[in-house]
Amino acid sequence: MKIKLNATKDSLRNLLESEGFVFPCGGKGLCGRCKIVAPTLPITEKDRTFIALPDLERGVRLACDKVIEGEVEIDCLLERVEQKKKKISEADAFVVFEDGRTVVGLCDGGEVLDEVILPPTDTSFRALRSVAQKETVELYEEHGLAKATVILLTGTPQKFSEVTGIIEEYDYCTTVEAKLFDMTSEEVLMLPKPTALIGGDILLEMLGRAEGTMLVKDGYIAYLEENHLFIARVIPNIDAPATYVTAIAYFIKRFEPKWKVVVGDNVLAKACGLVPTESRVSENSASLLASNRPKAKLERLTKKVVELSLADDDLFQDLLTEITK
């Protein structure tokens, strides 16, 4: 099993055991059975004692006597045991239907306890409801939980409207009885849906970001300043990238952002020089379920939303003409 490790002067044995790998002996270099494949690691005397030269040349090493400094990729040949899920007495849950993925998780006290990242869910009531129910119930069962106290439910406007039946726009967080949506919890927390094209998924991602940040994620491009959160909805198309690349160039030209970041494996955005950053969806979901203060911050952020229609903008059209020449 190939894994990536990153540490500063830490025992490789400790790192592998923390990942669930089991050493066949006491880890003192006496049996030569804790073999890994890591060509970048230097050959030690213990390696030479137990491993034949052809295997050494292709990168086979012992794991018991190594110290890791920096990042290293290892093909670990040891057996791995699955760690048992921690049993919990109560928790909240979150389900976020994004363009590029679906995120389902459990949290308590502002801390994410467990989560699963799934491929994007089809925009149909049956598919969305099936994923929300199946994945949350499976997480409950793994942790010995009967149901969640509150489920946070949000996503792109289309997916959110399909799964809830809520079409109208609103700019506040609201909690309703879970039985209205047949969810396995006591209540459902629904995030704002500020416009027909902008949903709670991008608000979750922008919550807590610094002013001056331009963020690209899936079909959203956003820029946050003191009084406004400008957002455009432009779906990326790798086969016809001109419109998407122009939209990114438009935000850079118009707003001159201090930080230009991209969430996810977005080839077009990375090619435009945006820096990869971690998603904040899970941690912000946990925070919203733990306290009313983040909800107030999210509602203030929602009131700053300005939806941009780039097709009607002269700057966008000029840039598009330059890019497509």
Describe the structure.
The protein has helices spanning 12-18, 45-50, 53-57, 125-142, 157-164, 200-206, 242-255, 267-271, 281-290, 292-303, 314-323, and strands at 2-11, 21-22, 35-37, 60-62, 67-76, 79-80, 92-97, 102-108, 111-118, 148-155, 174-177, 185-190, 213-217, 220-224, 229-233, 259-263, 275-276, 305-307. The two termini are 48 Å apart. The strands form 4 sheets. A 6-stranded mixed β-sheet has the order 9-8-7-10-12-11, sandwiched between helices. Strands 17-16-13-14-15-18 form a 6-stranded mixed β-sheet. Strands 1-5-3-4 form a 4-stranded antiparallel β-sheet. The chain has 325 residues and is an alpha/beta fold.
Give the gist of this structure:
The longest helix is centred in the middle third of the chain and has 18 residues, at 125-142. The protein has eleven helices and 18 strands.
How many structural domains does the protein architecture include? 3
Order the strands across the largest sheet as they lie in space: 9-8-7-10-12-11
Q: What is the tally of beta strands?
A: 18
Which structural class is indicated by helix and strand composition? Answer: alpha/beta
Helix content range:
25-40%
Overall mean pLDDT stands at 91
User: How would you characterize the largest beta sheet?
Assistant: 6 strands, mixed
Tally of individual helices: 11
Separation of the first and last Cα atoms: 48 Å
The coarse silhouette is: globular
Please mark out the parts with pLDDT under 50 across 5 or more consecutive residues, or reply none: none
The helix-strand sequence is EHEEHHEEEEEEHEHEEHEEEHEHEHHEH
Gyration radius, in Å: 24 Å
